[in-house]
Each structure stands twice: as C-alpha cells, then as structure tokens.
Design a protein that fits this description.
There is one protein chain. This protein has nine helices and no strands. It is mostly helical. The relative contact order is 0.10.
Length: 224
C-alpha cells in the first residue's frame, strides 16, 4: 500500500451536493481504488499495531478524497465523522433509496417518460438512463431488453419507422440488438427528422400534437 501525498484537484469528480448519489459513489469508489484505499470504507480497523498504522494512513487519504469531492452543504452532515467508513455509511443510508416503495416510485417515474421533439434526444436519453440507474439502485431488476423495450415505447409517432425496422431486424435473429445500437439508431433518426423539417430547432415543434404516441399506451413493448 502506498502513502504518496495526493495532489489537490486531480480527482475529476463533481462534488456531491445531494443529487445523483449512485453516479457520484461509482466514481468516488474508482478514485479510492486507484489510490489503494477503497478497503477502508468497508473494513474495520485491524487489531495489529503495525497494520493499524497502515490502515490509519490509508483512512486519512480516503477521507481527504471523500471530503474533497463534497459540496459544503454535505460537509455539514459529516464534519463530526472520524473515519472514511463513518462518512460513507450515513450517506449511503440517506441517499441510496431501497425497498419496495422506492422501487415502485422509481419504476413509475421511469415508465411514464415520453420523448417530445421539443428538446434534443440526447438530453432525453441521459435522463432516461439516469432514471433506469436509479431504479436499479432502489433494487429494481432490469435486463437490457427491458430498457430497450421501454426506450422504444417512449418514442413519439415520428419514430415509428425506426421501431418497425428494429422489430424486423430483431426478428431475423441474425443481429443482436444492443442498447447502444438502439440509441445510435434513434439519434440518427432524429437527425433525419430535423433535416426533413428544415433543421428547425426542437422547441419549434408543437407540444400539443393531435396524434398520440401509439407505443406509450402500452408500456410493455416487445420487439423480439
């Protein structure tokens, strides 16, 4: 285990401010692992004096990383903590929402999402995948197929041809349909739609279409 002093401001992690804990914790664990101190947030101090000294050195480094990646409003909650584990445990309990109620709420939030052409598709995809991650963090079980089906079901009528094409491709069983493939296909279709409409900005599309979304009415869309 190394004891090199860590440079300040090299972590590349946005300070945690109470939002998107799952993403922040994923990144911070990687930083801790890179610095060989990840173990101190899960293990208790050893009894052996020599090992304890090494552990305390690693713990100071871990606390430095954690505190350096938190905003002031979060620091208030952990200022009295004396170890990295004491810092992480209450944050996990507070911000990792688990249990049946949390799963149901996260699932409702995710499944009611529908894409409107008023904003860039990339923004919707990021929000869609963030909510899917929150559902998993709450304890929900999601397979790649579930995410693909739900994403296609969230598309407006303008994307119907893409859904049909993916249906045929998937039915052929010759090509595995991945989320990345579906995402890229939808983005390409968005570009085609914008060109067809004369490259008008997203907010130029009316949010009050007469035609509803034929896919969103059924949230269990199966293309395979």
């Amino acid at each position: 285990m190394t004891s090199n002093v860590l440079p300040v401001g090299v972590f590349g992690v946005k300070p945690f401010d109470g939002q998107n804990f799952a993403n922040w914790f994923f990144r911070i664990k990687l930083v801790l692992e890179q610095n060989e101190v990840l173990y101190v947030i899960t293990e208790n101090p050893p009894a052996d004096a020599k090992e304890l000294k090494t552990f305390k050195t690693a713990d100071v480094k871990a606390r430095s990383i954690l505190i350096g990646c938190m905003s002031d409003n979060i620091l208030i909650l952990i200022k009295d903590k004396t170890s990295a584990k004491e810092i992480v445990d209450p944050l996990s309990k507070t911000y990792e929402k688990t249990g049946m109620k949390s799963v149901v709420m996260a699932q409702k939030s995710w499944r009611k999402m529908e894409y409107k052409l008023e904003k860039p598709l990339q923004e919707f995809l990021q929000e869609f995948e963030t909510r899917a991650a929150e559902l998993r963090m709450a304890g929900g079980k999601l397979e790649s197929e579930d995410v693909i089906h739900q994403l296609l079901g969230a598309m407006p009528p303008e994307f119907e041809s893409v859904v049909s094409a993916l249906d045929i491709l998937c039915g052929s069983k010759q090509t595995e349909i991945t989320l990345d493939y579906v995402r890229n296909t939808l983005l390409a279709e968005e570009e085609r739609i914008l060109k067809k409409e004369g490259s008008q900005p997203h907010n130029a599309f009316s949010s009050n279409r007469n035609q509803g979304n034929p896919f969103s009415k059924s949230k269990n869309v199966f293309i395979c």
